[in-house]
Specification:
This is Helix-turn-helix domain-containing protein. The protein is mainly alpha-helical and about 70 residues long. It has helices at about 5-10, 15-20, 40-45, 55-74; strands at about 30, 35. It has a domain at about 1-50. It has four helices and two strands. The chain is elongated and about 70 Å long.
């Protein structure tokens, strides 16, 4: 599968796919000067995804801004 299609299918950039391949999580090969993604390894990568969980960074930042605003009014 061509890199652009693999990027579109997986929802991540080609740079991210190259990074994952460099760490051993994805198989790439060359054919006629083009970098291709091994379809089975891309399917395995997508299947191994982790569930998204929201962080509390936004709430913590809002609380800190509120605290700073309250302190400046005193």
């Amino acid at each position: 599968m061509q890199m652009a299609l693999a990027s579109e299918v997986s929802g991540v950039s080609p740079a991210t796919l190259y990074s994952v391949a460099a760490s051993g999580g994805l198989k790439l090969f060359k054919l006629a000067g083009r970098t291709l993604v091994d379809t089975a390894s891309l399917k395995a990568l997508i299947a191994s995804r982790q569930a998204w969980t929201p962080s509390n960074r936004g709430a913590a930042a809002r609380a800190k801004r509120s605290e700073v605003a309250r302190m400046s009014l005193r």
